[in-house]
Amino acid sequence: MDIALHLPHNVKIIKEACSFKTALEFEVDRPIQAWRWMAQSRCVPDHADWVRAEVTESWRRCLEDYQLPLGNYVRWDHLNTATDPLPAFCNQAQRISDMLSRLGHQFDVFLKEAGVMLVLTDAHGQLLQVLGENPFASPFMRSLYEKHSRWSETVLGNNGIGTAAQLKKPIAFQGMEHFLSLLHPFTTVGYPLLDQDDNIQAVIGLISDRQESMNSLFAFLHLLCVLLNTNLPLTQNPVAQARVLEKIPFKLAKKPPSQHEAAMSEQLTALVDKAQKLQQHKIPILITGESGVGKDHFVNLLKHAGPRKSQPLIAINCASIPHDLIESELFGYEAGSFTGARSAGKPGKFLLADKGILFLDEIGDMSLDLQSTLLRVLETSEFTPVGGSKPIKVDVQIVAATNVPLLEAVEAGRFRRDLYYRLNGAQIHLPPLRERDDKLGIIHHILQRELANLPNPQAISICPSVIALIEQHPWPGNIRQLINVIRATLYTAGDTLITRQDLPLDFVEELGKVMPGIANKALDNGPSYPLAAVPGRAMTLEDWELHGIKASLRECAGNISLAAKNLGITRTTLYRKIERFGLDKIDWREHSKAG
C-alpha cells in the first residue's frame, strides 16, 4: 500500500515531519554551569554561550514573574488544583483526546519502545490524558500523572508542556535546562494545538528520562500534532501509521539495568558492562573498595544487567557465619542429620543460588575453615549436603567483595593463596565517594530521594549553606555514611528549614579536621568569613552574598530597613534572603555587642 494515496496533496507538512530530525538542531550548550550559577546568584545568567535564549527567557519568567523557589521545590499546593475551562475549549480538548485514543496500536508501541510518556493537557497545563507506559518510579513523577495535575510554568517552572502553552509554539527542554531540579533527569517536549484564531485547544507533550532519541521524539510529536490538526485518514489506518513511523529514524532507547533509583555515570556504566561480559563466560568477579562504597548495590546492578537477571541472587556475609554452622549454611542438610535439624531438611546457599549468582560479601574476613570448605566447591562445582550421600552439581556465578587488601592478607597467612586466585578471575575496583567524578550527582540524587520519602516533602526546604557543607565533606564512610547523615538531618530537624544547626555534630567535626575552622563556623552564627574562605578553595558568589548579609545585619544590630539600605536591596528581598540562609532565628543585637 502506497502511503501517498492516503495523504491530501496540499499537506506538505507530513513530509516535513519525516525529515524533521535532520532539520532540527537541538543543542544544549552549558546548562549545568548556568543552572548552578543561577542557584548561587539568584540571577538569570546573561552569558549567551551558556544556554539557549528560550531557556534564559523561561528562567527569567520563573524567577521574576512567578517568583518560584530554586531547588527541589514546586508549588505543591497548586500541583493538583483543577480549573474549569470554558465549555467550547473543553469540547475541543475532548475531541482531541478521542482522536488520540483512535490512533491505534502502532503509536502505542512507538511510545513504549521509546520509553516515553505522552500527556495531553488543556491550555492551562491541566492534565487531561496519559498515553504509554509510565516508566518513571519517583513519587514526584507519579504525582504529575494524576488527574488534574498542573504542568504550567507557574507551578513546575519551564518544561516542554507548560512553556509550549505559554509561548504557543513547540519547544523542548533537556536535563538542567529545567528550572526545577526534580525535572533535571528528564527531557520534556511540548507542542500546542491551535485553532484558526490562534487560541490553544490543547497541548500534547512527551516526557523521557533518556536523551539519545530526543530529535526523533520531536519528529514523532510534530507528525502526531499534524494528524490531530488535519484529521487525516492516517488516524484510522494502522498500516498507514506504520509506514509513516518507519520514515522517522528512530533509535530504540536503551534502558539502564533495572535501576530507577539512580542515574549511572559513564564510569559506573562501563564497570557494569565489564561485569556483564564476565558473567557471559562465568568468570569469577572480585569487587574491591572501601567500606560503604556500594559494593552490594553494584552487585544488584550487574545481576540485572547480566544473563542471570531472572535467576536468584543469594548473598552470604562470610564474616558472620558461626564455625559450627559453616557446612550446613553453605550446603544444607538432609532430614534428621543432627539433633535439632528440620524434619524436611534445609537447602544450603549454593543450592538456592543454582543458575543464579552467589554473592560472598566480606570475603577478606572469612575464617580459614570456611576458606578450605569453599575452595573445594569452587573447584568442582559440586557439594554434598550434611548427612547426604550423593553429590549435587550446581551452576553458580561467584561474585566476591572485600574492603581488605587481599594480597596483604595472603602474604600475612590470613587468606589462602589458591582461594585468592580462584576468586580473582577479574577484579573490579569501586572508588571512594570523595574520588568519584559523579560525586555531586550522587549527593543530590540521594538528597532528592530521601526528601521524597518524607511524609510532607513539599514543606521542607534546605539552606544552601547546608548543601555546600555536604558537598565539601570528605565522606570517609562513603555512600553509606552519606545516606545516614542525610536521613539523620532530615528526620531530626526542628523546623521545616534545614540549617547548619540540624547537621550531626560528628559530621561537622569530621569536616573540621580536613577544613580547619569549618566546624566552628557551622555551629556559630556570629561574625565569620564566608564558608569558602579557606586555603585551596575558591569563594562562590553565594559565600560572598551570605557574608555580606551577615556583616550588614551585625553592623545595623538587626535593623532590617537599615541593613537593606546599606546592601542596596529592598526589605522584602532581604527578608527572603535571610529566610533562605536560615538567619532569621539569630539575635543580631547580641552579635553586634559581641563584635
TrEMBL record:
Highest taxon in the source lineage: Bacteria
Residues annotated as transmembrane: none
Limits of the Sigma-54 factor interaction domain: 261-491
Keywords: ATP-binding, DNA-binding, Nucleotide-binding, Transcription, Transcription regulation
PANTHER family noted in UniProt: TRANSCRIPTIONAL REGULATORY PROTEIN
Protein name: Sigma 54-interacting transcriptional regulator
UniProt source species: Methylomonas rosea
High-level lineage: Bacteria, Pseudomonadati, Pseudomonadota, Gammaproteobacteria, Methylococcales
